[in-house]
Structure formats: structure tokens, C-alpha cells
Amino acid sequence: MIRKRTRTRAGGGTPAHGRLRAVLGATTTALLTVTALAALPQTTAHAAGTLGAAAAEKGRYFGAAVAANHLGEAQYAATLNREFSSVTPENEMKWDAVEPNRGSFSFSRADQIVNHARSQGMDVRGHTLVWHSQLPGWVSGLGASDLRSAMNNHITQVMTHYKGEIHSWDVVNEAFQDGGSGARRSSPFQDKLGNGFIEEAFRTARATDPAAKLCYNDYNTDGVNAKSNAVYDMVKDFKSRGVPIDCVGFQSHFNPNSPVPSDYRANLQRFADLGVDVQITELDIEGSGQAQATNYGNVVRACLAVTRCTGITVWGIPDKYSWRSSGTPLLFDDNYNKKPAYDAALSALGGTTDPDDPDDPDDPGTPGAGCTATYTTAEQWGSGYNGKVTITAGSSPITGWSVDVTMTSPQKVLSVWNGSPTWDSSGNVMTVRPSWNGSLAAGASTSFGFTVSGGASPPPQVGACTAS
Ligand code: XIL
């Protein structure tokens, strides 16, 4: 059985985490702020050092898809527990897992994940109630009226079992076709019950757990296109007729053939403008190195730019367990080292890797060595801005530093001061090293600046500081 908890979040965008670090970021009352600051003074002195903590400071969650059979692996559990504030069971809540035979429910694998999450103060996304895939054969064999009652019973049983445990449910997953038709995808539900099955599923879900946010979730809907237009029209119709829907999930599986769309943020925003939350639900981006890092930074910044984008979930933890492992699409390599994509995601969230974090597998291991880089936009005008990066030495003196700064094309750096840049072949990434200001006493700071033309936004992506 699942341990119940008292729901403390009343439908807002900020999940209620058990951890003080998360509460600190999500705090809305002055009184609680003062109490929290008094309890954890050092938390405010440094930028957050994990994805979950940095996202919480922006009032958002940062989650991962989790597989129950990896929870026993020490490094897997340690990385999950350290970095993430929400989990999605990768397969364990799907229909074939929880109701393999009609009316016979098996929740043990999913419970394992939910219990783990709860013991760590993490929230849980429910995935997924009604989907054409990973659907047991007995469901597809039913006639219309049996199928309708089986669907409603499935929703009711599963949501009742997890009532109070799930911040958002993917009620219906992938009901639209790819391509330009904007049509619904053929499935047992669509073919036998017609368009109305989606609405019926949402109404049943609301009646079962009125506190859970109810999402429609899909892929290839990340930019403005025929498929996302069709989903948009459905959500608009639901809102106008009072059909209960609270959120839209954007799976965000990206690769060179399906890159992060340039209108990603605008697309999230137009859905938010319909009066629903938006969530990035299954993020993975095939690639490596700086190119992958830049994409991750852009996705995180797009979510932060949309007030109703309430959280991001990456579809796995280390590359080796990804459903697309050959594309190395995640934030951690096979040995749980943080990839450049991790640094980019963390820095886009406003966090900074603590160079002396003993939990950090990338830690150079020199006590007190290291530096941090923090970015501010000093001035901004119609077509550009002046950026400033402040470098601060850790608890030991340093004699040199370097920081990667990535611009989004067509932005270009016109000049750099108090730092000496070199450029990668794309011309978008400059590595800045000291000009005269390499030696810093312990805890001391210096800064360099630069002028960018070709657009006042987005701000640059500033990587981690490397000390020497
Ligand atoms: C994938 C899982 O990652 C795989 O382990 C499984 O074999 C197939 O499903 N869209 C979704 C997810 O909504 O549930 C899918 O997850 C990936 C695509």
C-alpha cells in the first residue's frame, strides 16, 4: 500500500516538496521566507547546486523518468535523490503494467517508485491512463460499450490507488496523428468510441481525484505545426465547454531530424494563454558536447520564460538506460558523470555546480580549489546587450580560470573586455580566459564583459567555471 501524505499544494504551479531546500525556493509568504533563511543561511549564499534545488528557486520542479528495476543500483538512486524533485514511472503505471488482465490490478512496481519518491520528498507525475500503446490485448478486443466501461474503470481504479500522491496525470497520451492532417490517431478508443473518448476520460479523471492536475500529453507538438494546432483546438474547445483539463505535456524527444523548434517557447506560451499549465514531460535531446548542451539550455530557458511552464522531466538519468541510448540524449553519462548538457541545464536554471561538492563525480578533488561563474545582463537595448560574468574563487586561491559562453545565432559578440576570448568552429561559443585578472585570492572575484548584437534575447548560456 502507498503511504498517504497530506496534500499541501492547492493547484498552483509549485509542487510541495518535503525538503526545506525546495520549500525555500517555493516560498510565497514573508514569514516563511524569514524562517527558512534563518534555518539554512548558507543556502542563500550560493547558487543552487542541483537541478531540483535550482528549479525550485524558480518555482518549478525538475524530474526524471525512473525505472523500478534500477532503484537498487546505488549510483542510480544517489543521482536521482540528489538531483531531482519529481519522478515519472517510465513504464510501471502504463495499462499493461497495472491491469494486465481485466479487473486485476498490480501496483507493486509502480508503488516501489512512488514510495521511493515519497521517502525522498519528491513529487510524482502519473503516466499514463489512456494510450494506444503498451495496452494489453484484452482491451483492444472489447466492443464499444465494454471498452467504455473498461476505460472508465481503469482510470477510476488507478487514480483512486494513487489519490493524493500524484501532482499531475497524463490522462490521455498521443491521441493525434503525425503529419499535416490534424486528425485523431487510430486506436481502439478512437475507433470504437470516437473523438468523445478523450473528453470522457478527463471527466472520469476529475471525478476520481479532483486535486490532481489533468494533462493531455503528446510528441511532435513542441513547435507550431498541424499536429499541435489540432491539440490546441481541442484544448480551446475543452476550456470553452468546461471539460476539465489543467495542463498540456510536451514530450520533447529531440534529435537531428526533429530538433528543438525555434518557436518552442512561443508554442508553449500559446497553450498557456488558453488557461492551462504546460509541462515538458519526456525531455531528451540526442547529441553530445556543446551542441547538446546548447539545446538543453535553450529548452530550460524556454520553460522559464513561460510563467505557466511548471516543470521539466527528463526521460531517464544516465544515457545507458535511455530508451534511445545510442543517441546519448540525457544529462549523465554511463558512469553518472555530469555531461556538458547537465551544466547547461543547471546554469540556465540559475544554479552553479559546487566545485568542491564531495557528491559530485566531476569534482576535481582539490579541497577548496575551483571557481564559480555567474551571469548578469548589464545593459540591454533593442538589438543587443552587454553581458557580465563574475568569476569567484573558491576557498583556495587560483591562478587562472576559463568559462564557455554560448550565444544563440544570429547573435554575435562584438567585443570582450577584461577577458580574452577564443572561438569554436561554429562561432557561437567563446571560451574566455583571463587577460590580466587570472590570479584571485580565496573567495575573491573579478569579472569580464562583452557586447552582443543580433538580438536582445535570449541571454547567453554560461558554462561552469574551470580553475587552474
Ligand atoms: C517508452 C519507454 O521509455 C520505453 O522503456 C518503453 O519500451 C516504450 O515507452 N512516449 C511516451 C513514453 O509517452 O511512455 C514512451 O516511453 C516514450 C514515448
Description:
With 468 residues, this protein is an alpha/beta fold. It contains 15 helices and 18 strands. The protein has helices at residues 20-26, 30-39, 41-45, 51-57, 74-83, 95-98, 108-119, 137-140, 144-161, 188-193, 196-208, 226-241, 264-272, 289-305, 340-348; strands at 61-66, 86-89, 123-130, 168-173, 213-218, 247-250, 253-254, 277-285, 309-314, 371-381, 384-393, 401-406, 412-417, 420-423, 429-433, 445-453, 461-462, 466-467. The chain has an eight-stranded parallel beta barrel with strand order 1-2-3-4-5-6-8-9, surrounded by six helices. Strands 12, 14, 15, 17 and 18 form a five-stranded antiparallel sheet that branches. Strands 10-11-16-13 form a four-stranded antiparallel sheet, with no helix packed on it. Helix 12 links the parallel strand 5 and strand 6. The longest helix is centred in the N-terminal third of the chain and has 18 residues, at 144-161. The protein is elongated. Mean pLDDT is 88; it is low at 4-45 and 363-367. Bound molecules: (3S,4R)-3-hydroxy-2-oxopiperidin-4-yl beta-D-xylopyranoside. (3S,4R)-3-hydroxy-2-oxopiperidin-4-yl beta-D-xylopyranoside (XIL) is lined by residues 90-91, 173, 251, 282, 323.
What attributes does this structure have?
468 residues; alpha/beta; eight-stranded parallel beta barrel; five-stranded antiparallel beta sheet; 18 strands
DSSP E strands, number:
18
Helical residues, percent: 25-40%
Q: Which segments are poorly predicted (pLDDT under 50) over 5 or more consecutive residues?
A: 4-45, 363-367
Average pLDDT, rounded to a whole number, is: 88
Biggest sheet details: 8 strands, parallel, barrel
The gyration radius over C-alpha positions equals 23 Å
What spatial order of strands do you see in the largest sheet? 1-2-3-4-5-6-8-9
Q: What percent strand? A: 15-25%
DSSP helical segment count: 15
Task: Name the bound molecules.
Answer: (3S,4R)-3-hydroxy-2-oxopiperidin-4-yl beta-D-xylopyranoside
- Terminal-residue CA separation: 53 Å
